[in-house]
Each structure stands twice: as structure tokens, then as C-alpha cells.
TrEMBL record:
It comes from the Bacteria. InterPro entries: PIN-like_dom_sf, PIN_dom. Gene3D superfamilies: 5'-nuclease (3.40.50.1010). This is PIN domain-containing protein.
Length: 141
């Protein structure tokens, strides 16, 4: 009997690492991405993750072409984009802590909320925030 494919929410650091060969995590991101493909993982992209990734590519990496390419990929009918609405934001507040690192942003809280909503098996990210909040990382699948 085949087990069902894992559900994996994708964070912006994973998207950025995959699209930027100069990123220090590029090799690891590509290895994890291939493993997820081998597992036939169902990938879930929060809408805000796509916007955050494209903005980083455009502003930090100075690559509007990469930003446009990423968005073009994300609007393909085979890609699942999770809606982020008012209820998502309300739930995301539970992951926000005024004393936590400034690196733990609302974007991270939204990814965690989406992972919770879709009962994800893992989050494709390199951020320790998710482990601290009880989630499994895609590298552990």
C-alpha cells in the first residue's frame, strides 16, 4: 500500500535559495527540492510567500526577471497557492512574540498558520523558527 504524498508548505527562503545559484543554501535547496519531487510532495505556497520572494529577488538580487519568472510559475494551474485572508492574519498573531528575533516576521507566522491550516507534514525552509514552533522541516522528510 502506497502512503500518501506529504503536504509541504514552502517558505520564501527556500524559493530564493532555489532560484539564486549564488545563495549559500542553493545546493541544499536543490537537493531538498529533488527529494520532494521524488516523494511526489504536494507543495503549498502561501500568497504572501510568493510576494515576499519576488520582492527579495527584485530589490535585493536586482533581478526583476527572476521575480517575474517566479510569479509566472506560481500562476500555473498545477501550483497550489494558499489564500491569505483576515482569518489567516488573526491566527498568525498566535506565532508573533514581541520579544522574539526581528527575523521572525509576520511572513513566518503566516507560513506557520498555513501549515497548521492544511495539516502540513513539513515546511520547506531553513528557518529554525518553525522547529521551535513544533513543525518538521522538509529536510527531515
Amino acid at each position: 500500500m502506497m502512503s500518501k504524498p506529504p503536504r509541504v508548505v514552502v517558505d520564501s527562503d527556500a524559493i530564493i535559495a532555489q532560484t539564486n545559484p549564488k545563495d549559500e543554501l542553493h545546493g541544499e535547496a536543490m537537493t531538498i527540492s529533488q527529494r520532494l519531487a521524488d516523494l511526489n510532495a504536494f507543495l503549498i505556497y502561501p500568497a504572501t510567500t510568493i510576494a515576499e520572494s519576488a520582492t527579495h529577488m527584485q530589490r535585493v538580487l536586482n533581478s526583476t526577471a527572476s521575480a517575474i519568472g517566479t510569479i509566472q510559475y506560481m500562476i500555473e494551474p498545477t501550483v497550489f497557492v494558499a489564500e491569505v485572508n483576515q482569518q489567516t492574519l488573526k491566527s498568525a498573531r498566535n506565532y508573533m512574540n514581541p520579544r522574539s528575533s526581528k527575523k521572525n516576521t509576520i511572513f513566518d507566522a503566516i507560513v506557520a498558520t498555513v501549515a497548521e491550516k492544511y495539516d502540513a507534514d513539513a515546511i520547506f525552509s531553513f528557518d529554525k523558527f518553525y522547529k521551535r514552533n513544533g513543525f518538521k522541516l522538509a529536510s527531515e522528510l
